Amino acid sequence: MFYKIVRAIVFVILNILFRIKVHYKDNTRINEGEPLVLCANHSSWFDPFVVAITFKDEISYIAKKELFENSFLKFLLTKIKVFPVDREGNSLSALKNSLRILKDNNTLGIFPEGTRVKGFSESSVKGGIGMLVIRSKATVLPVYIDSKYRLFGRIDIYYGEKYDYNHLDKSTLDSKQYTDISIDIMKRIYNLKSSFKDDNHGNH
After folding, report:
1. Which pTM does this prediction carry?
2. How does pLDDT run across 110-147, given as a tens digit for each residue?
3. Phi, psi (5° rounding) for residue 23?
4. Residue 204 scores a pLDDT above 60
5. Which of 49, 67, 141, 196 is at a distance of 20 to 30 A from 76, taking alpha carbons?
6. How many CA atoms lie within 13 A of 164 on its CB side?
């Protein structure tokens, strides 16, 4: 209930500040009872909120542990299903939380680049997301957010088609191959805008 209340408030605020247009096909904006990893590019701290108000189901996000050092922010983040990850040290607890969420057929939201970037770079992609997707046998939903986030400016958000890597044998994969999977995910994300060029699906 708390998640829905916060989502509704953020929905109103963001739609006042920006003009949001959602591009999608079929049922890509809902979880159809599957372990789903929603992966998006990351250029602004607004990104998680834009995704949360345009995706129709609840999303559990991973966020850097530093955000949880403030007691009020920790309370708020925990209530809206955000959990911490140590980007510099041991992220085992974050991996366990992620696998638990996916085992329950819920949606996990991740920004594979790990921090805000202005464009795609293979060097900024880590192998962790590839390993997580393979270990959980999750479906991947690529999302691309296109905006300069100027006040009253436009935000275009593109929801791609779901896919998975379940044809791969995890027992044969090494760290480089996990990184290659992560890079493939990011390439799919950054190619979304061009794939919707002649498609008028979706308005929000």
Report:
1. 0.88
2. 988 766 666 667 777 777 889 999 999 999 999 999 99
3. -110, 125
4. no
5. 141
6. 17
**Amino acid identity for residue 137 in this structure:** K
The rounded distance, in Å, linking the Cα atoms of 71 and 69 is: 6
pLDDT digits (tens, 9 = 90+) for 178-198: 989 999 999 999 999 888 875
Mean pLDDT of the chain: 87
Question: Which has more pLDDT, 73 or 104?
Answer: 104
Within 8 A by CB and 6+ apart from 178, the residues are 127, 128, 130, 131, 134
- The answer for residues whose C-beta is within 8 angstroms of residue 65's C-beta and 6 or more apart is 84, 85, 86, 87
Please state, in angstroms and rounded to a whole number, the distance separating the CA atoms of residues 161 and 141. 6
List, as one string, the DSSP characters of the chain.
-HHHHHHHHHHHHHHHHSEEEEE--TTTTS--SS-EEEEE--SSTTHHHHHHHHSSS-EEEEEEGGGGGSHHHHHHHHHTTEEEE-SSS--HHHHHHHHHHHHTT-EEEE-TTSS--SS--GGG--SHHHHHHHHHT-EEEEEEEE----TT-EEEEEE---B--TTS-GGG--HHHHHHHHHHHHHHHHTHHHHTTT------
